Give the backbone structure.
Amino acid sequence: MTDPIHHDALKAWFLGPRGENAELLERLFTEALRDHVFWRRNYHPEDGFTIRELDKRREGYDRAVATLTQELMGLLAELKRGVPFFSGRYKGHMAFEQTIASQVGYFAAMLYNPNNVAIEASPVTTRLEVEVGSQLAGMMGYDQDEAWGHLTSGGTVANFEALWVARNVIYLPIAARGAADELGVDLEVERADGSRVPLSRLNLWELVNMPPSAALDLWEALWSCGSRAEVHDALHGHSLQTLGYQEYVRRLSEAFGDPLPPSVVLVASTAHYSWEKIVRALGIGSNQLVFIPVDENFRMDPDALWETIVELTEQKVPILACISVCGTTEESAMDRLDRVLEVRERARKELGVTFHLHSDACYGGYAAAVTWDEAGERRSAAQIQASVGRPERESDLSAWPSPDWVRSMEALAETDSVTIDPHKLGYTPYPAGAVVFKDRRARELVAVDPPYLLPTQGLGSAEDLFLGRFVFEGSKPGAAAASVWLSHKVLPLDERGYGHLVERTVAGARRLYAALAGAEMDPFRLVLLPEPDINIVCFLLTHPGFRSLEEVNALNEGIYARMSLSEPGAQPEYIITRTRFQTPMYDGAVDPILSRLEVGSPEEWKASGKEGLVVLRSTVMDPFLADEEDGPDHVGGFIQALQSAAGRSLRELRAPASER
């Protein structure tokens, strides 16, 4: 059963849909402001005042204050046209209101305006960011003494950094081979099969298939083969990041004869569209993205992954990285990461192939908190199920989470890197993405040392606090670090805090799913997609009179238009989003849906191209939806609004063209 103490605390974590905790938030904001002003007034008080009381009585001052006040009133009026993320009526994107802790933390640190690129510009918040990185690493199951992470502006930059590092890791052994030859040394290294041989004996295929951990061991060993300056110059003289692709390929051809084909990045076909941006930006090329089919639950198909690896190995195509998804943005589906790991291990043993394994957990990463108890031990599926509960109305749904779900979450500990967005299921303000690496040594492969950010002598391991050396962004709001840090302090990353919060959103999503499954929608028929792995409910409506996919799409597009803010001035009772399942990304996964729609065939769907299949999407970020006894019945209201929107959409479709 749900712990009553944790559940009661939930009511203090947010401002509330009616601003119920306004007094609390105002008191904390005022405390933060007053404390900041106190600090200013006591910082070298002998400096006196710059703005005097007489200055505040001058005409220019009054005009400036009047302008500020008037423009603020205009801004506040405009902001009310925004999206009501706080409301139980909002079931659209992956957004809700932020925790009070994160809002207060952001506001308090914002007054100081620290830039976390270097310790000298952010002596406090940089330390908080390093601590947040360690906290997230622990939630993933990494060894916090070996791992390293930091905050970014969002998931796209976090994923960019993960692949940036992965690319440098795969090509590191080649650079190390050239550097070793230049330094006149030979080092013993580990091959994919676990055997150890001299570096000079490895051919190009073996070099790019050195296990990531072995590549970093080689990097570390090389630094003992000469002075730091000598090794630095030798490594950089042979590295891809220094030479660029054209010169790098030319040198590979000279050193090894016919170079290998370009390396590829394996991604689940449900992967976020930002991955195409990332491979383009890194110069890898979008043609090098290889999409792995998903199953009917929208999870990467491990068998298809294995078949793809075998085919690539036969063609001697290196695999730069494999991207698994923990919480797809369309369906909140979680890949069976434990099985993906089994495939990677099989590839290592049977094919001599290795690669960087990354989990894109930008959306679902915080769900890992569900698997930890207060003592830092893993919770079993049965323990979590007892906490979440299973109301009678959900008796037709499978118990959540399944043991497979828990195993997938535990498998995060075996990945090489993970990205996670605190500004999604972490309920903190934008911008707050994060990337965490299992082996902190990997960050050195992208390090750049601008002279004005170098650590001063004598700080030793304080290089951790000079984030600018290792990160892509040149400016980083320390307020974001304070925001996430304080939220983690109030909501621990286990069953007491974020674990409980995520459980309640899942319970709410399951309540909505069960209600939709049992709803009478005459004359429409509602087709639900599989039960969500986390908290996104997807469905679509059809009508007995429909004979084509085009009609189904038009109906659901019309529903979306009436239940979204896509049109200027729209004021829907309930807000949802929609997506489109297109070929080839959803080949196979869409077949069961088409069968249940009884309209169209897989061939017709594939022929539809960009039209695809329109699917309605409801993201349940609201942790209060699961409790029927508290507040309005937003589940019942949602279903009524859905049926009404469907009726209006159908009438418009059947109306003469002149009346539309």
Summary: The longest strand covers residues 319-325.
